Amino acid sequence: MGHPTIFPKRLFDSILHKSPPRDASEQLSQAAGLELVAVYEHMKTCDAGLSAEEAQKRLLRCGPNVLTTDQQSGFFRIFIHAVLNPLVILLTTLVTVSFSTGDYRAGTVMTAMIILGVGLKLIQEAKADQAAAKLKAMISLTAAVIRSGQHVEIPISQLVPGDVVTLAAGDMVPADVRIVLAKDLHVTQSSLTGESLPVEKFDTETNPTSGVTIELTSIAFLGTSVESGSATAVVIATGGQTYPAALSVGE
Fold first, then answer.
1. Rounded to whole angstroms, how far apart are CA atoms 251 and 247?
2. 11-69+141-248 adopts what CATH topology?
3. Is the CA virtual torsion 138, 144, 150, 154 positive or negative?
4. Where do the Cation-transporting P-type ATPase N-terminal domain residues begin and end (predicted)?
5. What would the pLDDT profile of 153-191 be if each residue is shown by its tens digit?
6. I need a surface site. Which of 7, 59, 170, 223 has the fewest CB within 10 A?
């Protein structure tokens, strides 16, 4: 546990420039506003956690706890991003003007510059994707959960809504969770907000009227990390249903 996760690019920008995803926001805001006992009831679980049988049923229904957008970009998408670069667009315009006015030498030089620039971009992006894939293949992420009253570690991909997880300093938050017990808990949300300073989280919501999901103090988000303290939390959303996943849609 405690390893960083790799999120889609421009996630911070999406928070600044896009409206929060309604379904994810409403789900987390609703959970934040509940009393502790009601949190367990809402997620149809208890402080002893889910049974193995119930967890398996929910896994089949909800799917694995993975981000479908956390994949290699693909050649076509990388190519489009490279071509839509403002410099490439400018050079393409100048090439068109050069050839139309008979300045073939300048047009040829700028065409070579475009090919070189786009080619280098494709190579860099491909290498970055390969490096990220190798890194993720080397990391085996697990989460500490309570199942049938027993503390066990399971792959993060096997987490389901209603699971009860425990968090400690250095851990990555494995899903969107509602904190039900916190002790001096501080979480770093830089993967979402770009802010390096940790924020304190509580087992009772202290900011219920904010209207901004990321400011909820009883919710910890997938991919953020525990800077200090410890907590017990109930999983509210996993995989593509999480707040970070919803923010990254359309990037």
1. 9
2. 2.70.150
3. negative
4. 30-103
5. 999 999 999 999 999 999 999 999 999 999 999 999 987
6. 170
